[in-house]
Amino acid sequence: MLKKIIVGLLFIVTLSIGITLNEDKAEAATYHTKAISVAKSHLGVKYKWGGISPSGFDCSGLVKYAYGKQGKTLPRTAAEMYKKGKKVSSLQKGDLMFFAPNKASRPTHVAIYVGDNQFIHSSSSKGVSYAKTSNSYWKPRYIGAKRI
Hints:
Elements: H1 2-40, E1 52-53, E2 56-57, H2 59-68, H3 78-81, E3 86-88, E4 96-99, E5 109-115, E6 118-123, E7 127-132, E8 142-147
Antiparallel strand pairs: 1-2, 3-8, 4-5, 4-8, 5-6, 6-7
Helix pairs in contact: 1-2
GO molecular function: cysteine-type peptidase activity
GO biological process, one term: proteolysis
Keywords: Hydrolase, Protease, Thiol protease
């Protein structure tokens, strides 16, 4: 009888741990997807140095704004954002991609990976727009990604 009770309790504990892990994954997927949707809703907004609102965004302003709408507080600059999150080598939707003038310098640009080898960002030349990870300008400047 005691053996059946212990087995039953272990089953319940195992099941509840699995449910909790799945809820955490679902929450992460949800806020990443929603942050991407917020950024996409501002496609075409002009670049504004220091901009943090739909009237104009710089790169980190767009990322901070999109994630802020999901209750995630991020620092103001790309360099400060780079200090947050978990470093990843395999990109997933919602990961933050960081770029620098050269591999040894601190990040000066940040974007959100949207899947299909594309990211959304605010660039000084095109404002809020998509770019390919293989883009000849951005690819050599890529220094890594973080998952928030």
